[in-house]
Amino acid sequence: MTSHTRQSWTKQALVVAFVVLILACSFFIWQASMVLYRIEQSMVAMSGDIKKMTTTAGNIAADVDNIRERMVVLEKTTEDAVGWDDIMTVFDETKKVRESATKPATPLAKNVETEVYYLLKQITSSDKRFALIGRPSSGSFAGAYLLGKYKLYANTINSAEQFIDDIATKSITGNTYYVYTNETEKTPLADFLKNALKKYRASKKDDAKVPASDD
User: Fold this and answer.
1) Domain range summary for the chain, segments of one domain joined by +
2) What is the DSSP letter of 130?
3) pLDDT band for position 7 (50/70/90)?
4) Which of 2, 84, 154, 201 has the fewest CB atoms inside 10 Å of its own CB, making it the most exposed?
5) What's phi and psi for 144, nearest 5 deg?
6) Residue 160 in contact with residue 112, Cβ under 8 Å?
């Protein structure tokens, strides 16, 4: 084999080796790109799953908040309907009244009881708002509240004035009772009742002055 022939084979072998090297590199690059593609697809899928999970978590959180808001509304509605704070306040005052009412039972004068019930009627029949336990309430509630308190105190009450001073002026804890004259202005309930009592007694005096008609 001549020198020229050996050189020709050497060149061909180098070319073949170079081609094989290029093919091998291309194969590895293709394999790497496929791996990267699969990784990218997996990451996209994971991102979709995370997005779905985030959306689901957000929906769950929104549902929880919605349920919480509904529960708050339901609780408030129940509280307003039942008047639980009002009931507890009555119970607290009832206990304190029982502890403070140490006077022996004495019969109540008929005219005193009549005047007391007249004053209570002025409250229950009124369209004004009354503040006895911290928040405005209707006249019917305020009247029933004071009636219950009066029943507990009845043995210690000797006059309509005492009813106003001891029962209808303030709570056991010292909070003043009020009646709203309009949406924003209010006056002490004691003043309201004293004026009503004054008018009631004046009307009774006027009735007594009217001579009886002869048949």
Assistant:
1) 9-82, 83-207
2) E
3) low
4) 2
5) -65, -40
6) yes
The predicted model scores a pTM of 0.51
Supply the DSSP string of 161-197, one letter for each residue: HHHHHHTSSB-TT-PBPEEESSSS-EEEHHHHHHHHH
Instruction: List the structure tokens of 154.
Output: 């009845």
Assigned token pair, 85: 């704070």
Model pLDDT for residues 129-153, shown as the tens digit of each residue = 999 877 788 999 999 989 988 888 7
Q: What is the distance between the alpha carbons of residues 92 and 145, in angstroms, rounded to a whole number?
A: 13
For residues 172 and 184, what is the distance between their CA atoms, to the nearest angstrom?
A: 25
Distances (CA, A) of 152 to 2, 144, 147, 160: 137, 13, 9, 15
**Beta carbons of 177 and 89 less than 8 angstroms apart:** no
Helix axes 84-100, 139-153, angle to 10 degrees: 20
pLDDT of residue 132: 87
Q: pLDDT tens across 88-132, in order?
A: 455 455 555 555 554 544 555 678 889 999 999 999 999 999 998
Whether 100 and 153 have beta carbons less than 8 Å apart is answered as no
Average pLDDT (154-178) is 90
Exposure b/e, 8-29, CB count within 10 A at least 16 = b: eeeeeeeeeeeeeeeeeeeeee
Question: What does pLDDT average to over the chain?
Answer: 74
